[in-house]
Amino acid sequence: MREGKVIKVTEEMVKATDQDWKIDLTESDQTANITVSLAKDIANKIANSNKPLTLIANMNYTVSLPARNLKYINEKSDSGINISLKERKQQDFEQFPVQQIKSAILDVTITNDKKETISRFPEPIALYLKIQKPVQENKTTGAYYNEKLKKWEYAGGQLKGDYWIILTEHLSTFAVISNDKTFKDIHKHWAKEEIESLASKLIIHGKTDDTFAPEQKVTRAEFAVLLVRTMQIHTEEYKGIFKDVPMQKAWAAQQIEAAYRAGIVYGTKEEYFKPDENITREQMAAMIIRAIEYKDEKRLQSLKLNKKFKDMQRINDYAKKPVLQAAELGIIFGRANGNFEPKTQTTRAEAAVMLYRMLNVLKSDSQ
User: Can you say how many angstroms the Cα of residue 182 is from the centroid of all Cα atoms in its chain?
Assistant: First the structure.
């Protein structure tokens, strides 16, 4: 990325408020491609205050870095850090038509004074991207561009006022995308709304471009991949944690290991995951609750767990509490006869609905 205009930040440019430190760059004669150079002593002053640094570049976007991140970056620097912000052209990205990209396309890069790129951080960085056109929030998402795969992927976020807010622990190129996706085999399906929403948000995909196969069963591997994508959990190089998840299972291996490191999945017995087994309702409930705990453990602390099912004795001990937690959160329900049916295998439609409800639970907590 071209460096663009370099703005060396002085102490006079950094304004303290009760909530944060602000650097207003809107008076610069070039804000579409700038590099903010922050000296180590200024960065330390902000970091030690425990308040975030907010960069107001122009009306299209704002970037907010937590104090902990500034300290983390500064520890890797001798004299200071550089924050590069570049608006890229919509025509550079062919996956979606221009009219589906609803914000500036913002490339964010942070380097230390040794020109080493810092790409991952201990706390999420907040990106505020102004919505340029009206959007249908249920079919809109923040997205980041995967340079390796040459496609946009889910980055989440939510609409607040005129801005879409994305919280990210990694840096890339980001945008807001509205994508009214549907499939020909869900036209009158009971889960049509939830499937369309998650597909439009780039979380779930069809079996083909125009078919979803809503009644097809979901495997343990497939659901682990969905949770890692939904929770935006960082993947690492393949380690071989499970004997039955080989590197050749490339579409799922790293995601299964990431879910394991996050405490979302466990093996069915030591060193085995059984990735191709169809997932049961109790297994899915347990994985969903662990994913919520990974994201926001406080969300589970005040639940009363008063809900009971007639077939509680059929639920494995490890899943009893997660099933009741998921039921109280409105993520999963019993059958009309009062049973939970823990051993019943789950369909793609049911998985989509549970993921949709889980996202709504997490979203409601962040508002």
Answer: 22
Q: Taking a C-beta distance cutoff of 8 angstroms, is the pair 22, 52 a contact?
A: no
Structure tokens at 270: 């030591």
Would you say 24 and 36 are in contact if contact means Cβ atoms under 8 Å apart? no
Question: What span, in angstroms and rounded, lies between the C-alpha atoms of 131 and 154?
Answer: 17
CA distance 89 to 74: 31
**What pLDDT score was predicted for residue 57?**
83
Residue 29, pLDDT score:
62
Closest CA to 40 of 8, 15, 66: 8
3-state DSSP call for residue 80? Answer: strand
pLDDT at 242: 95
- In the chain, which residues have pLDDT < 50? 1-2
In the chain, the N- to C-terminal Cα span, in Å, equals: 35
Taking the C-alpha atoms of residue 340 and residue 327, their distance in angstroms, rounded to an integer, is 10
- DSSP-H helix ranges across 159-280: 192-200, 220-231, 253-261
List, for residues 196-233, the tens digit of each pLDDT value: 999 999 999 999 999 999 999 999 999 999 999 999 99
| pLDDT (0 to 100) of residue 58 | 83
Radius of gyration of the chain (CA): 22
Tokens for 122?
Answer: 């201990």
Report the pLDDT value the prediction gives residue 360, as an integer from 0 to 100.
Answer: 93
Handedness of CA 88, 93, 97, 102 (dihedral sign): negative
